Amino acid sequence: MLPLSDHNPSRTTPVVNYILIATNVIFFLWELSLGPGIERELVLISFVPARFWLAPFYPPNIFRILISMFLHAGWLHLGGNMLYLWIFGDNIEDRLGHFKYLVFYILCGTIATLAHAVANPASTIPSLGASGAIAGVLGAYILLYPRAQVKTLIPIVFFVIIRDIPAVVVLGLWFVLQLFVGVASVGVPEAQNGGGVAYFAHIGGFVAGMLLVVLMGGYRQKRLPPTMVDEPWR
What we know:
The chain is mainly alpha-helical.
C-alpha cells in the first residue's frame, strides 16, 4: 500500500515541514554534485555503527547522526521518504508547534539511528536517510489521528485501486511489516537482510514518536468535537 494524501488538513502553515523537505532535497542535489567520488564521501560523513561504537562521544560521530538524516541513497529513496513526510508531517507540526516539531523530528531521528546501532553494532554499512525520523512522525500520527482517512494506492495483481483507509490501518500495517522483517533479520548477514534496510531504525523511530509526542504535550491538546477526524482515541 502506498499513501497518496490524507483527509486531515492542517490548521497552520507547516513551515518547518517545508524546510525539512527542502533541506533533504538540497542535500541530495549536493550528493549528486559529488560525481564519481560520491561513495567515498558518503562513507566519510554518514553514520556507521561499527565506527560509532569505537568512540560514541567523539564529536564527529555525533555530528554524523544528524547529517545522515538528510542524506539519501537515490531518487526513489528520497521520493518515498519525502512523500510520507509531506502527507503526515504537517499535522504533527500543527499539534506540537513549529519549534517543538523540529526538536521532535531530530530526537526521533537520533533515537532511530541509535536503535539501528544497538541492533547492528558491528555493521560497517553507512546508514543514511530520513526514514528513522519520519517513522517517528508516523508513530505520532497513528496515536493522534488514528481515524483520519488516508487516500491509499493498493496494487492487486496487475491492477491498482485507490481507496480511503483509516490511518491506524495504513500505518499499523507499515509498522507490523517493519517489526516482522526486523525481527526476522536478526542474525542474518547484512547483504541478505533486504538490501541493508535499517528496520530497527524504523521500529525505534516509530516507538520514539509515540512516546515523544505525549511527553512533549501533543496528546494533551484541547480535544476537538467528536466529528473531527483528528480526535485521538482515549
